[in-house]
Amino acid sequence: MIVVVLILSLVGAIMVGRGPFHSVTLNLHGAARQVASAMREARMQAIYSGTTLPFTLDAAHRDYGQQPGLRHSLPAGVSIAGPARFLFYPDGSAAGPTAALAEGGRHVILRVNWLTGAVGVEGP
Fold first, then answer.
1. Domains observed in the chain
2. What is the model's pTM?
3. Which of 40, 41, 43, 84 sits in a 20 to 30 Å window from 49, CA-based?
């Protein structure tokens, strides 16, 4: 019984000393999902309001959001592979380039279907 307690305390000490587990891939995918969600929200607002809404990814400031409107920062370590500007139209369609988020040598692609305005996330 004492041996088991000693082993568990040793493992616990090692885990605490190592710090929290951090997955670059999960962090990158989480950021991509947040950006895609904000893009989908912009599309829905364009449809609802009947106006064209611009949505930008700003590589210099590492943020994204509607222009003008609330801007969201990317998590530490995640970067935008270049500036991108998307337009969401009242009929649900969209225009814009393919954008990429990167972290630790990995990248995730954000695509917008020009006809339907559907936002997709692709990557490892």
1. 25-122 (3.55.40.10)
2. 0.80
3. 84
pLDDT tens digits for range 43-70: 999 999 999 999 999 999 999 999 888 8
Instruction: Check residues 49 and 82 and name the one with the higher pLDDT.
Output: 49
Q: What would you measure as the largest C-alpha separation in the chain, in angstroms?
A: 70
Residue whose tokens read 């210099």: 60
d(CA 2, CA 49): 67
Identity of the amino acid at 57? L
Cβ-contact 109, 123 below 8 angstroms: yes
pLDDT tens, 27-38?
Answer: 899 999 999 999
Q: How far is CA 82 from CA 11, 40, 49, 102, 109, in A?
A: 43, 20, 29, 10, 12
Owner of token pair 């997955």: 23
Query: 24, 103 in Cβ contact below 8 A?
Result: yes
Q: What average pLDDT does the structure give for the chain?
A: 88
